[in-house]
């Protein structure tokens, strides 16, 4: 059984539409049973037989699922591509995975590891072997995600943790000269091709079932980021450039030439089964230069980096950094802004706690002598505390950071410094210009770049160790027997430069020409700061406004984008009238844009003008219907005005997109109670909320971590300052 | 010399040459914390902020029927048991006095015993030299982690109970006042959690004759830095008065969503204002709000480890720990922050029930200076607030006694100010204004009480009146200054409390049944006269229906 709902979402949607158009619109609270019974609770069902994996395997046979050779016999291109992909090496045979799953099994028990099996080891899970010893000799532990898995999924939900259902239908094999059998074959292996199918495994969570006692934690979640993004035409955070709608297939399965004569080719191309992404390490381990090149191609340019500002401590900010007046003896704060330009989910993706993408900043004199750096040692050591890393980190019961995928030990998040689609983040660096620097050492040359390595070195070391054990050796031996590649986790990981920029400061360095986008992105990034520092965003945004007006290449959309961020700034500061004024200007340029309505709603909600907020959120969600955060905001606004029925409907729309969204679950429960639903149903809804809300102890764990680890202390602040290390 | 009198320190170097006796005595003439006395019955909030962590401490007074009640406080997360603590009253008094607008007195030094060098030195000396005080004798500031301590019995509601706050309160015999739902519902919808501090009224201490609840402290992590004041509107009967102190490493704060102004400072006032300093300051404050409607007024922004002048010794590390430094954890991007780097900001808001419908949303603000005995090259005292490298701003008001003795030297130096003449070491109390929130308002003519013009408020100082005619229509006779010989040290004004008492709470008082049906007792806390302050962050709940709950102390009352 997958996570299912007691009522189809469509009905909830209809109820919302009716409520919004026909509802009372007033503030009188709806109480008691209404003439028309409200929709019932949408609740994740209790775990299916394979829980904590959400997979419904319908009696599938593991050995059959593990068979890829049969598919490959007819589909050489697809087979070759799949064998180059991460999907083919998701099983125990992969030491990166094995080191993590073995630890879960050893420390938390076998049953929690089913969750891993639902997406990594479907063949083992299907045969119940995740509940038993997995030997290196077992073929099923070398299978990975096979053709029969993806092409056998008949249903997938957005719940995650492998929330798909395998079809009971047998694969029909075509017979030569029998078009009907070919059609039957196609029908029997037709994939869902939906984002939900990808999301069923690229969205995950941890809870009691996975050994995470008493907490609910979101794990990797590429689906949420994409659903509410401009790539799904449901972004609410900004007025973006015109972006073509793209899903996981468009980016990760583009068509490519069928070089080996695959019969599935159309016009000489097939849908790529390389699933190209960021796993350069695996490509390197496989020795697959082509796959590695493709991975690097997709990574390069995915982000942009900008030296957006420089400020001599105690002095004025210079925007951008280039051309800033700097003198020997100055202490400088540098703002580095990184924007996710073309990743349709958060960057980096996947298991965020194991990622290793970082910023390297280098400051040199005019003669090229380094005076300070940050992140320079990360490539070699993986432990450079001056490096800013794009990742999330979690702590265990003791408040210690966990770097090695000990998922069962996770108890609370400390920070998440990954970047949402099309969003920007700011990172600050402090650098001391030596007072002894001669005048001709200026201008200073500052270089900043984003570097990417698939996994952190702690995890790599652990994986490497795992290959050197007796068990590791047996897995390697069995791989050789199977003529599979032996993955060497000890080999160095490739490092890829994703983006780079430089600027000259001091001396005769001239400021660059106006670039409204740089200022706009800087302002947008600073809006992620702490409440009290949001004002920092005003200057770059006002500068962007000035420059965009003077840019002949910029049109109404671009001007509206800047105005919109100014409106957001005011709204976040509780300056509602000013927010509305900016947003009205944006609206005049880009009428009806959902991001404007959403910002309007947030501005009103900030000061508890719930009726106005609800009206604005209603517009936003109508135009960006796949953004769960929008529905949650609408639900809370409606609930705050006593429009329970509509609040319920909005919450349930959010739950369709994110079935375990704590805010939506809470508003649903409150609305059900207010609407007089039976106690048992209300209690069940409250149970669901309680199970999925943020852990109570997270605050204390963060502070425990901060007290014992400077990394925690530093990075729990959204925009923090990295001290650059002076060159010796 | 106590550090509290460090204003004297700047002067002392000069004064020791010419008038050593006076220098030693000068400190005694600070009027200790006008605000402390003005508002010691008003709501006090101390926020400590670092990174995304907020530690919120609050002290409420209670005015109402002499029955048990409870205070309900919304918080972003379900607090752990040891996240809620009670603090001693003294810590709030310390913070309040340290930051309160202050009245100082200066005597012009004998023009024939100071030299020009002294004067120039004084003029150049910014009063920024922090004097680090030693801890005030182990004042026993401790934190109680018990949940049943003093008058409180603290109950932390679970997330589930928080979703049904109204039901929980009803189940526990509390009655929610009519019309409260619109205030509470958004908190519930938004996922706020609650803790309830049940108050045993018989255990509530009287401070200066008023029922004052023990300060209570809790902390949480959030990117947002707000002070929720809307719940306080639930029981607001009139004007509300709120003082917020914020302690943060190296950072001053203002409010982002209300106009921000600094209180006019460095004003010379007439001697007759000494006995009515509270009224005078209230008039100044009210005039400031009149000119700047809805404004939140900055009254103080200074390094918490120093002051100048000091009505109180600066805050000590153990006191900062009491106020939350013990739970700040790592020091963010600025590890190694010591207590000396906390900046104490004091913000003062006063508003009608309809005048503040939004929570206070804070923003970081650049350092400012003002209100110091700092004269420029021309000899003019610095005016107002101005940008500065570090925070040195305070509300400071001075009574100056010009030299009235003989001037028999050839080249007298005027305008050097210090302590009283030898033999008149300390005044017997300039009487500190107390209960400023409740002093009679509108009965003092500001222009007649100040000697300095206040152009930003459109106030022009009136010519001096003959002694005894007072500063306003209802002014009492000004008590003559009575020099008291041979007494050294600081004179703390013992304030006479104004009668009208406020309902000042960081909670909302929810009546036991109908409060109107019960006689109001005014013993101790006393029912407030006039529109008084209810500043609420939480909900003070009266016990539920008396009919359903035995009146435990009925026989004793």
Structural description of this entry:
The complex is a heterodimer of chains A (728) and B (557). Chain A is α+β, with helices and mostly antiparallel strands and 728 residues long. Chain A folds into 3 domains: 4-20 and 516-702, Tetratricopeptide repeat domain (Serine Threonine Protein Phosphatase 5, Tetratricopeptide repeat, Alpha Horseshoe), CATH 1.25.40.10; 62-206 and 215-260; 303-455 and 493-512 and 719-726, Sandwich (Immunoglobulin-like), CATH 2.60.40. In chain A, strands 10, 11, 12, 17, 18 and 20 form a 6-stranded antiparallel beta sheet that branches. In chain A, a hairpin with a 5-residue loop joins strand 10 and strand 11. In chain A, helix 1 (9-22) packs antiparallel against helix 25, helix 21 runs antiparallel to helix 22 (594-606) and helix 25 (644-657) packs antiparallel against helix 26. Chain A starts with 8 loop residues before the first helix and ends with a strand. Residues 1-34 of chain A have low confidence and may be disordered. Chain B is α+β, with helices and mostly antiparallel strands and 557 residues long. Chain B contains 11 helices and 29 strands. Chain B has helices spanning 6-18, 20-26, 34-39, 89-99, 116-124, 159-163, 165-171, 181-189, 277-291, 317-322, 446-449, and strands at 30-31, 43-50, 53-59, 69-75, 85-86, 102-108, 148-149, 152-156, 193-199, 205-207, 210-212, 216-221, 226-227, 240-249, 252-255, 260-262, 267-269, 296-303, 342-351, 360-365, 368-370, 386-387, 392-394, 396-401, 417-418, 426-427, 483-484, 509-510, 539-542. In chain B, the strands form 6 sheets. In chain B, strands 2, 3, 5, 12, 14, 16, 18, 19, 21, 22 and 23 form an 11-stranded mixed beta sheet that branches. In chain B, strands 7-8-9-4-29-28 form a 6-stranded mixed beta sheet. In chain B, strands 1, 6, 17, 24 and 25 form a 5-stranded mixed beta sheet that branches. At the A-B interface, helix 24, helix 26, helix 27, helix 28 and helix 29 of A face helix 6, helix 8, strand 12 and strand 20 of B.
């Amino acid at each position: 059984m997958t996570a299912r709902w007691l009522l189809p979402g469509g009905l909830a949607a209809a109820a919302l539409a009716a409520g919004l158009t026909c509802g009372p619109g007033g503030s009188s609270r709806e109480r008691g049973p209404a003439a028309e019974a409200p929709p019932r609770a949408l609740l994740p069902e209790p775990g299916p037989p394979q829980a904590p994996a959400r997979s419904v395997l319908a009696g599938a046979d593991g050995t059959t699922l593990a068979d890829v050779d049969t598919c490959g016999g007819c589909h050489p291109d697809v087979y070759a591509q799949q064998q180059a992909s991460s999907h083919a090496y998701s099983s125990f045979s992969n030491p990166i995975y094995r080191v993590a799953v073995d630890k879960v099994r050893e420390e938390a028990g076998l049953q929690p590891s089913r969750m891993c099996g639902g997406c990594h080891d479907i063949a083992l899970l299907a045969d119940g072997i995740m509940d038993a010893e997995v030997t290196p000799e077992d073929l099923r532990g070398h299978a990975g995600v096979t053709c029969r898995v993806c092409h056998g999924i008949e249903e997938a939900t957005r719940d995650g943790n492998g929330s798909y259902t395998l079809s009971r239908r047998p694969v029909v094999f075509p017979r030569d000269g029998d078009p009907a059998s070919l059609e039957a074959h196609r029908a029997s292996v037709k994939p869902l091709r939906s984002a939900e199918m990808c999301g069923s495994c690229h969205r995950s969570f941890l809870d009691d079932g996975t050994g995470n006692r008493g907490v609910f934690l979101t794990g990797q979640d590429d689906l949420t980021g994409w659903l509410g993004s401009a790539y799904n035409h449901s972004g609410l955070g900004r007025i973006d450039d015109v972006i073509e709608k793209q899903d996981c297939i468009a980016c990760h399965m583009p068509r490519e030439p069928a070089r080996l004569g695959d019969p599935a080719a159309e016009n000489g191309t097939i849908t790529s089964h390389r699933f190209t992404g960021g796993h350069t390490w695996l490509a390197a381990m496989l020795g697959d230069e082509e796959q590695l090149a493709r991975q690097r191609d997709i990574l390069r340019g995915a982000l942009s980096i900008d030296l957006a500002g420089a400020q001599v401590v105690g002095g004025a900010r210079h925007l951008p950094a280039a051309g800033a007046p700097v003198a020997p003896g100055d202490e400088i704060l540098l703002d580095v802004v990184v924007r996710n330009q073309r990743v349709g989910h958060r960057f980096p993706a996947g298991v965020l706690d194991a990622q290793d993408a970082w910023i390297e900043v280098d400051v040199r004199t005019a003669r090229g002598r380094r005076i300070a750096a940050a992140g320079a040692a990360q490539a070699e050591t993986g432990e450079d505390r001056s490096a800013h890393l794009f990742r999330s980190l979690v702590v265990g019961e003791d408040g210690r950071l966990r770097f090695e995928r000990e998922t069962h030990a996770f108890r609370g998040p400390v920070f998440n410094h990954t970047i949402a689609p099309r969003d920007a983040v700011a990172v600050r660096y402090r650098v001391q210009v030596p007072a002894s620097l001669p005048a001709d050492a200026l201008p200073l040359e500052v270089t900043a770049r984003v570097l990417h390595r698939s996994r952190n070195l702690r995890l790599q070391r652990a994986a490497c160790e795992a290959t050197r054990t007796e068990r590791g050796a047996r897995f390697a031996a069995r791989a050789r027997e199977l003529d599979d590649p032996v993955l060497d986790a000890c080999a160095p990981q490739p490092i890829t430069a994703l983006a780079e920029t430089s600027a000259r400061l001091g001396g005769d360095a001239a400021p660059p020409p106006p670039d409204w986008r740089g200022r706009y992105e800087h302002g947008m990034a600073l809006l992620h700061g702490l409440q009290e520092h949001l004002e920092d965003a005003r200057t770059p945004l006002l500068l962007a406004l000035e420059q965009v007006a003077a840019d002949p290449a910029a049109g109404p959309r671009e001007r509206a984008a800047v105005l919109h961020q100014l409106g957001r700034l005011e709204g976040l500061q509780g300056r509602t009238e000013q927010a509305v004024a900016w947003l009205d200007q944006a609206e005049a340029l880009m009428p009806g844009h959902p991001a404007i309505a959403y910002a309007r709603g947030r501005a009103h909600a900030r000061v508890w003008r719930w009726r106005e907020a609800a009206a604005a959120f209603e517009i936003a969600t109508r135009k960006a219907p796949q953004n769960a955060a929008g529905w949650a905001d609408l639900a809370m606004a409606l609930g705050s005005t006593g429009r329970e029925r509509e609040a319920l409907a909005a919450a349930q729309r959010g739950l369709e997109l994110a079935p375990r969204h704590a805010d939506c679950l809470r508003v649903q429960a409150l609305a059900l109670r207010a609407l007089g639903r039976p106690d048992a149903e209300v209690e069940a809804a409250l149970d669901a909320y309680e199970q999925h809300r943020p852990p109570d102890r997270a605050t204390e764990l963060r502070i425990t971590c901060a007290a014992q680890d400077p990394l925690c202390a530093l990075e729990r602040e959204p925009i923090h300052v990295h001290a650059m290390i002076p060159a010796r | 010399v106590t550090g509290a009198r460090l204003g004297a320190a700047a002067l002392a170097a000069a004064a020791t040459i010419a008038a050593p006796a006076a220098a030693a005595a000068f400190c005694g003439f600070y009027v200790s914390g006008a605000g402390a006395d003005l508002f010691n019955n008003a709501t006090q909030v101390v926020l400590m902020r670092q990174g995304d962590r907020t530690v919120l401490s609050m002290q409420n007074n209670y005015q109402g029927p002499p029955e048990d009640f409870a205070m309900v406080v919304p918080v972003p997360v379900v607090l752990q048991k040891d996240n809620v603590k009670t603090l001693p009253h003294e810590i709030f008094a310390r913070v309040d006095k340290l930051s309160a607008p202050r009245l100082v007195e200066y005597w012009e030094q004998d023009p024939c015993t100071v030299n020009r060098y002294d004067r120039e030195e004084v003029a150049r000396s910014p009063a920024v030299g922090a004097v680090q005080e030693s801890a005030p004798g182990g004042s026993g500031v401790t934190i109680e982690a018990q949940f049943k301590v003093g008058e409180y019995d603290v109950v932390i509601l679970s997330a589930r109970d928080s979703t049904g706050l109204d039901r929980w309160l009803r189940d526990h015999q509390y009655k929610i006042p009519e019309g409260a739902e619109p205030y509470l519902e958004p908190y519930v919808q938004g996922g706020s959690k609650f803790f309830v501090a049940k108050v045993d009224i018989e255990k509530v201490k009287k401070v200066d004759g008023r029922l004052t609840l023990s300060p209570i402290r809790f902390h949480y992590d959030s990117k947002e830095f707000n002070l929720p004041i809307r719940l306080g509107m639930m029981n607001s009967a009139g004007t509300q008065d709120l003082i917020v102190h914020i302690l943060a490493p190296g950072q001053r704060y203002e409010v982002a969503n209300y106009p921000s102004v600094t209180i006019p400072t460095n004003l010379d006032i007439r001697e007759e204002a000494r006995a009515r300093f509270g009224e005078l300051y209230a008039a100044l404050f009210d005039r400031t709000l009149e000119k700047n409607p809805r404004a939140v007024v900055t009254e103080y922004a200074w390094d918490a480890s120093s002051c100048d002048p000091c009505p109180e010794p600066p805050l000590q590390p153990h006191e900062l720990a009491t106020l939350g430094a013990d739970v700040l954890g790592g020091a963010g991007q600025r590890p190694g922050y010591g207590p000396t780097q906390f900046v104490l900001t004091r913000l003062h808001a006063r508003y009608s029930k309809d005048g503040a419908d939004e929570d206070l949303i804070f923003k970081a603000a650049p350092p400012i200076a003002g209100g110091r005995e700092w004269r420029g090259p021309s000899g003019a005292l610095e005016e107002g607030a101005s940008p500065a490298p570090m925070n040195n701003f305070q509300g400071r008001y001075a009574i100056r006694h010009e030299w009235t003795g003989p001037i028999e030297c050839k080249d007298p130096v005027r305008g050097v100010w210090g302590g009283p003449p030898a033999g008149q070491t300390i005044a017997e109390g300039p009487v500190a204004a107390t209960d400023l929130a409740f002093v009679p308002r509108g009965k003092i003519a500001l222009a007649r009480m100040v000697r300095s013009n206040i152009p930003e408020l459109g106030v022009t100082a009136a010519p001096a009146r003959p002694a005894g005619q007072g500063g306003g229509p209802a002014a009492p006779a000004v008590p003559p200054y009575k020099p008291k010989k041979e007494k050294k040290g600081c004179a703390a004004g013992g304030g006479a409390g104004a009668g009208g008492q406020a309902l000042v709470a960081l909670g909302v008082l929810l009546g036991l049944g109908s409060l109107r049906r019960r006689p109001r007792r005014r013993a101790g806390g006393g029912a407030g006269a006039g529109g008084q302050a209810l500043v609420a962050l939480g909900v003070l709940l009266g016990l539920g229906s008396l009919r359903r709950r035995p009146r435990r102390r009925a026989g004793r009352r």
